[in-house]
Amino acid sequence: MTGQMIKVCKADDVSPGNQKIVDVNGMSVGIFNIDGGYYALLNICPHRGAALCEGPQCGTTQKTNDYEFIYGEKDAVVRCSWHGWEFDIRSGAFLADNKIKAKTFEVSVSDNDVFVHI
Ligand code: FES
After folding, report:
1. pLDDT of 12-64, one tens digit each?
2. What CATH number is attached to the domain comprising 43?
3. In what order do the strands lie in the sheet with 27-34?
4. pLDDT for residue 2 is more than 70
5. Is 118 near ligand 1, meaning CB less than 6 Å away?
6. Distance 86 CA to ligand 1 centre (A)
7. Virtual CA dihedral for 96, 61, 105, 48, nearest 10 degrees?
8. Beta bridge partners of residue 6, listed in sequence order
9. For residue 36, how far is its CA from the centre of ligand 1 (angstroms)?
10. Which single residue of 64, 101, 102, 104 has CA 20 to 30 Å from 47?
11. What total number of domains does the chain contain?
12. Is 18 within a domain?
């Protein structure tokens, strides 16, 4: 592990399925809770620069070979509010083309404090 660990909030401030926008050394960063696991994304959409982390934390429609609607990845996706691009919160990958990624940061939790590593 390299760089700095910045304390950004309390773990209790970010309940499962919810996000919190924090300032990390002047950067806007979204902290997400997916089933008790914490993740951080830069609050800038790689498409056109919207505040990505202010979009809904949700799931998405899964690929199928049938005319079926299967909803999955509950709470593991953030959908940009400008044009609807969906990103995997855990990896930052754009779901339609994983060569495009939102910037992620490593996160750790200690004694109810959430740290972002930069
Ligand atoms: S700016 Fe985010 S989808 Fe276009």
Report:
1. 999 999 999 999 999 999 999 999 999 999 999 999 999 999 999 999 988 88
2. 2.102.10.10
3. 5-10, 113-117, 104-110, 37-42, 27-34, 19-24
4. no
5. no
6. 9
7. 50
8. 116
9. 27
10. 64
11. 1
12. yes
| Structural domain that includes position 23 | 5-112
In a domain, 117, yes or no: no
Q: How far apart are CA 8 and CA 23, in angstroms?
A: 7
Pairing of strands 104-110, 19-24: unpaired
CA of 3 to the centre of ligand 1 (A): 29
Task: Choose one of 41, 83, 95 to mutate for the ligand 1 pocket test, by most ligand atoms within 8 angstroms of C-beta.
Answer: 83
- Dump pLDDT digits (tens) for 68-86: 888 989 999 999 999 999 9
Cβ within 8 Å of residue 34, ≥6 positions away:
16, 17, 75, 76, 89, 90
SS3 98: strand
pTM: 0.93
* 118 belongs to a structural domain: no
